[in-house]
Amino acid sequence: MPDQTQARDAGIVPVILAGGTGTRLWPVSRKSYPKQFWPLISSRTMLQETASRAQGELFAAPIVVANDEHRFIVAEQLRGSGHTGARILLEPVGRNSAPAIAAAAFLVAEGDPDQVMWIMAADASIADAAALGQALGIAAAAAREGHIVTFGMRPSVAETGYGYIEQGEALAGHHGAFRIARFVEKPDAATAATLIADGRHYWNSGMFVATARTMLSEMERLAPEVARSVRAAFDTRRPDLDFIRLDAEAFRGSPEISIDYAIAEKTDRAVVVPASLGWSDVGSWSAIWEIAEKDAAGNAALGDAVIEDSTGCYVRSDGAVTAVLGLENTVVVTTPDAVLVAHRDKAQNVKRVVDALKRLKRPEAEDHNRVYRPWGFYESLIQGDRFQVKRIVVMPGAKLSLQKHFHRAEHWVVVAGSALVTRDEETLLVRENESIYLPLGCVHRMENPGKIPLTLIEVQSGSYLGEDDIVRFEDTYGRS
Fold first, then answer.
1. pLDDT digits 0-9 by tens, 41-52
2. 224 phi and psi, to 5 degrees?
3. Where are the alpha helices (DSSP H) in 146-197?
4. 110-138 burial by CB neighbour count: b if 16+ within 10 A, else e?
5. What is the largest CA-CA distance in the chain?
6. How big, in percent rounded to 5, are the helix, strand and coil portions of the chain?
7. What's the distance, Cα to Cα, between the start and end of the chain in Å?
8. Confidence of residue 318 (pLDDT cuts 50, 70, 90)
9. What are the structural domains of the chain?
10. Residue 421 is inside which H or E element, if any?
């Protein structure tokens, strides 16, 4: 958490952008469950790590902007780490960072347009909390005077995966803050080396500090179509459980554009605060290797991994035991349904693998074998001709929808906890080591009435086993 004596700005609103897909961290990060929801650098997820940096009496409750399909994951992870009171704005469709930030600014401005926002991605790492607090204090003071402030990270290497910021003249009255001379797109290696040699260029962290009034004023001036569309989507928003749903039709009308292109590179209010925060965008497996704890040979291992006679490797296993022998500077990542092996120097190009899988129409490109739902999750164990076996976990107090299927029957075997099952007109309590049969076409529902997670094995049999063979009659979570 930042040094709060440095911030001195009660009510700074953390705005956390949680809508990315993180394809460079495939096969762990995928569209269905991207990197911000994974514990990549500690026992907490990236979203939880990010929210924890701005937790305390000097900060307002966060605003999290997320995709609609991830809404329950966001809510559960925030609750699970003690972050209460968060406002979760749902994007009906991804439109990059500028529309997401505009939506958050409209929400803040509704309460106080002069409140300072601290805008950040949900999936970056910061090691030096004290330095962050000091930089945030400088940035917030400049933001109150109408500036849009970003943090420039002092570069340690000639990184080609980041954009750069060139420092201009000092900002009068704000020691440690400078006007921005220019933004530089991600450079090639030679250009990057030249940039870091002059001492005036910094990595672009993608974090911004500004008041809602300033951000909206510049949005209306420099990106009027974004401002107009998002305002319409915000004005016609509607509450949904703990979420705020932006109007889908209006939001789709917004251009798809980043905050850098829409505002930062055009505004005359841009300011940079140079800092050394131990920052990483955690954007590739090589970046994770950089910040991971390593052995004497420079190897980093996580999970069920064995490394022998190798140097400079990153090995992660979320599935089978993964053994590496005689390799140098290699990334090996194992999940239950996919394995990635790459040279560390090529880690920025993992997206090419994802694109190739998409062309082959492979589900592994975007979907994990484990599928999360508002009530828990399921994962396929075995699939054959006219049958499928799944493991289903239902959280305490949660329930599935009241539903039926046209093409399959189901057999449930409870292996942990207890299930309260509706089967047509019956309601039955199925305990551990007991089972129940649900014939094709019966109306059924399962809920967990207990205080521990309910785990069961589901055996499906029938002519069609797709997830779209479902008719919902009633659903706690508002799904159709």
1. 989 999 999 999
2. -60, -35
3. 189-197
4. eeebebbbbbbbbbbbbeeeebbbbbbbb
5. 76
6. 25, 35, 35
7. 40
8. very high
9. 4-280 (3.90.550.10), 293-364 (no CATH), 370-474 (2.60.120.10)
10. strand 419-423
